[in-house]
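ok so for the tutorial part 2 we go from a plain amino acid sequence to predicted structure tokens. step 1 is just haveing the sequence, like this:
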Amino acid sequence: MSSAGRIHVVEQGNGPLVLLVHGFPESWYSWRHQLPALAAAGYRAVAVDVRGYGRSSKPADVAAYRMLELVEDNVAVVRALGERTAMIVGHDWGATIAADSALVRPDVFRAAGLLSVPYAPRGGPRPSEVFAKMGGEEEFYVSYFQAPGRPEAEIEPDVRGWLAGFYAALSADTMPPQGAPDPHFVSPGGTLRDRFPADRLPRWLSEDDLDVYAGEFERTGMTGALNRYRNMDRDWEDLAAFDGAPVTQPSLFIGGGLDASTTWMADAVEAYPATLPGLLATHLLDGCGHWIQQERSEEVNEILTGWLASLPT
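step 2 — the prediction. this is what the tokens look like for a chain of 313 residues:
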């Protein structure tokens, strides 16, 4: 199906194709509330396992996880489903993958919905240099994830416990209080998990849901997922021809009011008139954290179906 080999999808419904792309550390399952809602609204909703996750192939080469490969995976899925075009919606890393898919292959992706992570065009210094300067003595989580083997050594001995803490750290109802040590940074000699909430799950995540996520990563390991972070400099090089380029198709942005991924990139949202000239709507959900389509599933479903209905035929 793609250069990675197998891309696993879960689909529901009939009608225009809507491709759903998850982020880290999730799977197709993060769209479990959207699949039936989109199907009921008259769409063919298809949630992928991004390469390296779930039941999709997991190439050994780190460079196989560069953005252009993931864009072509999405194109391959559209073609394999017998379609020529699709709307694409992504969350977290999936939002960046969705935006870049629309940017690089406008012939295939005719609209882009972005959740949690705003679109920011390629530009500026090399990403690894930017992240290395963040946090002072502390280490930004992206830099931490970029070191092969290091985050795996933290996560894989207790995948379920680590995921529970990570999800809780970025959820509105369980995140650390204002003024507490920021869970996006690692103290010298420490781990990310040191700053995660313990012994509580966010309301959106049941024990059964956690079992699904943990079971996938216990089976596959974390390297395929983490390799996305290890390609950010390659992406910067690969996308040089798109420096500063806008995504011109009809678009949508939904962010959480308490989500650092949205608030840290407020300048990117303010730049949308130039960077997303086809933007039809921006929604900032008050009191919502990072896992937006799971924390506020009904609200997100309403926004998504309304946006899709407004698109030109």
